[in-house]
Give the backbone structure.
Amino acid sequence: MSIFSPGARHALPVMLFLLCGFAAPLLAVIAFSFVPSRTFSLWQPWTLENYAEIFNSSSYISFLWSLGLAAATVVILALICYPVAFGLARVFGKYATLITLLFTLPLFVSENVRIYGWILFFIKKGVLLGTLESLFGYAPESILFTTGLTLLGMVYVYLPFMLFPMTLGVSMVPQQVRDAAFDLGATRWQVFKEVDLPLAMPGIVIGFLLTFVLAVGAIAEAKVLGGQRIIPIAHDIEIAFTYAQNWPLGAALSVLLMLVVGTFVLIVLRRFDLDSILGRR
Amino acid sequence: MNDFTQTRRDFLKNSAVATAALAAGGALGMRPAAAARTNELNILCWEGYNSAQVLDPFRTSTGATVRAESLTNDPTMINRLRAGETNIWDLINVNNPWARKVMFPEKLIKPIDRARFEPYFDKMLPGFKPPYKWAMDESGQHLLGMAQRFGPFSFVVNTDKISRASAEDQGWDLWNDPANDKKYGIQASDDWNVFDLCCISGFDPFREHTEEEVAKYTDTAKRVFKGARMVGDLATMNQALVSGEIDFYLTGGTYSCSPARADGNLNIRAITPLKGPMAGGKGGISWTEITSVVNNPNLSTHAEDFLEYVQSPEMSHTVAFAEGTFNPVTQMGNPACFDLFTKEELEIIQWDSLEEEMARSVEYDIVPDYDRLLDIMSAAKREASGA
């Protein structure tokens, strides 16, 4: 197709829009990662010092926390969401819509508000501990501001992003295939392993990817519920861009995060057929 | 292709109409923007100035569209101007040293009319009489903005757990006492955290530091962050103090604990140490906001009017008690303004000890080796989490 073809000409506005709105900011971030530390202009000799600084610092701790917590979130959510997705697609029947609504409603409330709600729930003399103390005279230590609660916050916030693609995936499995497997003598475990899981995999993989990519960039859960007991990489990037006034360092951290997440996503997508994941079978 | 019923000719025709409509819309959108500088005002500020109580009377009297965006740290606001938003904002409201030491030298703000505004400084509390250092440029020629909210800012305690007298006496050593491990929080406010870690280490933050001092600072940062029950924002800190999760928190003052006091928790109190490592043996640090006119090539005609408007006795009182946090204001030096404060309001902003606390404090300044100290602190914070 020549660039002068009508198709290309009509695609031009959209291409320009994407270039300006999507590619240009990314390119600016990448370019900034190569300018000298704590400077604000792109028009100067470029350097690798920001990357050297990151590799010589303890930034790896933040990367590991972000990747580790995101992976843990994905695993926990997979275990929680699969049974719920199965129920929504096959068991709950007319109640499925109501249950879906219950999972969707919290999305209408800002994430920060929901997280502060958990603070009120878990804080000393709050909903949980206050009730335990007044009803049973039992006053355990508060679990607020711990890594465990950060993880709980992430699982809570990202649940819909795993649940809905997974539900789509599970509902893509034809009931006839499952029936046929049972008729041919397959056990429940065999049907799950040989039929349900492989055929629902497109939805499951999209759920995994979506949750993982969002959770790697999570910041509010560790800041609020975790009391900054851990510093995820997104928080390091925020500090670099604000208090530290070090845009190049923040840009270099962002580029590395994009590379790590991008590589992971590419590896996963190479294992699974993109066409089947997008439903073009 | 069967479900796409439009012909190519229709599509081209519709595209042309849509493009023309977009272009017309764009042109319409541009026209008011270009002509609206007499009828709009954009303010970048700390919370309070963006409240309806402050802005609505100005909107009504001028008919102007007033947009105010609130952020909670100075560097981010200045970043916005550096990133080219000087042609958007008309006023910027940040803490004392930034106007004089950063924004004016970088040509991000411009001077205001001395003859028009110095009479307001004359009416302020004694510490702000003209020429007030932080409102002037280094040469002392140009007036760079108006001072309004201020306050001491060191730390906050629950006086049911630690008495005011003992907290003032022990001062920064509260964080050098191993018995206090996990009894305190840290309000995340990175520049102030750096100041406070210097104070805990026993030296003045606002000067160049020796290698030995930096080594001591590094140890202090690691120890203090490891010993913190949590790090968070001021709402989390106050909530944790009131509920008993913590007994005291680092980096706080009238500004941060006033919402808890306004809620009836008068046992939550900002403390300024009796003594400390700063010039003259002072133990506290204070802040004063300076609101400046942005060096906007197409400045709103309302910019200076707004600066004048918020200095009136009524509006000064409103600014002091606008939503968010509650703070003393410089115009409390004017009896017409002071008389508007109720006994409860004075209690919330700790008026009883304000003068002595300000006298015990040095003013927020820029730390010469801030970048290095901040990097050390960020690493200490991260490594505390790694442990």
About this structure: Chain B has a mean pLDDT of 91. The longest strand of chain B covers residues 146-158.
